[in-house]
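Example record used in the benchmark description.
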Amino acid sequence: MNNKSFFIILVVVNSYFSFSQDLLQSGPMVGYSTMREALLWVQTTTATEVHFEYFDKENPSKRFQTEQYTTQSANGFVAKLVANQILPGKKYGYDLFIDGEKVLRDYPMEFQSQPLWQWRTDPPEVSFAIGSCNYVSEERFDRPGKSYGSDFEIFESIHQKAPDFMLWLGDNTYLREPDWNSRTGILHRYTHTRSLPQLQALLASTHHYAIWDDHDYGPNNADSSFWLKKTTSEIFKLFWGNPNYDVIDKGGITGTFHWADLQFFLLDNRYFRTSNNNFTGEREVLGKAQIDWLINALASSNASFKFVAVGGQVLSTEANYENYATFPKERRYLLDKIREAKIEGVVFLDGDRHHTVLSRMQENDEVYPIYDLTCSSLTAGANNNQEKLNAYKLKETLVGEHNFGILNVSGTRTNRVLNIKILNKDGEELWTKDIRAEDLRYNKE
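Model output (structure tokens):
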């Protein structure tokens, strides 16, 4: 073969390889993890055949393959494929193939299976990231003037912390006026947000779970009357990788998952919500069916910490904005049921407010303190609200800049400790606090 022929072949091969890279719209992303399977997600630019190959990093020569799937326009060219030949407590690398060609990335692509620790060892140490309110700018559809979104390098800072997983606490994308009246617009907005370059490395090697709030559900302050709520539910499930949704079988995104000795309860504060301006009857945010499921699920849980994730603040006594305090009867019902059932270890996680604060509620010495960690905003406009009307706020925890949380649970089975760190966009610590599991229990004497 002469040099000219070799050059032509090289150009053709490189062109085809480059073409396969161009077929990737966003991702890959790692979704839920269990001991025996994990979810892998990807979005392409057009209809293509995709699959993943994965391998135990301790034995990379033995490779496994997911099913093959042809992405479709009707589903936003999204593929969700399950790695179902994994064993507990392993680290796996994976490769993405589009139309038979491997897609290369300059960052790690890996996932993990959860360890089998029960009846064998103390539970493992767990680290997870939290955050909410992610506005990715798109000038042609944004409001005129200064962009509402900035500091997208925050996702690179989260990636550098290498958490086991990230829990997105709502407003993970911002539907806008051209978006929320059509399936086409909603798909566009989710696709545009997911395609943010600074987000891709975090997606590829950290497991992701999510709830929603108004901006990824519908218009600002949207409630149960939103006419396309079934469509946004469908698209939310398409773009996220939770292990379950709608566990109460009434629509929406309610679900739960475990990680080690922790359990997470993912609530839906939009699908059943009464309008903020409707005072003609019973007013609800979560609805009785969802609350009763939650109380039952909390009561049956043996988790050392029971994290309840919901789009808006729960404990704050500041009865304005969209805080739960503006629905006092249902809020009282929820908190009374938690106390009545003597459920221990409850920590609320939420976002929405565009600032961060930790609230602590302890009605008397006979009950343990319940905490509510509000963590916001990732990239949407931040504010310095001091929560003057929130009787439960810990003033030293107020943060009015873009930030995220890293929560770490460690210690022996009988002495678990939750460490909360709030960090700025550059990954620098703003404050930290420890909460012991034994301090979230009732006195047994």
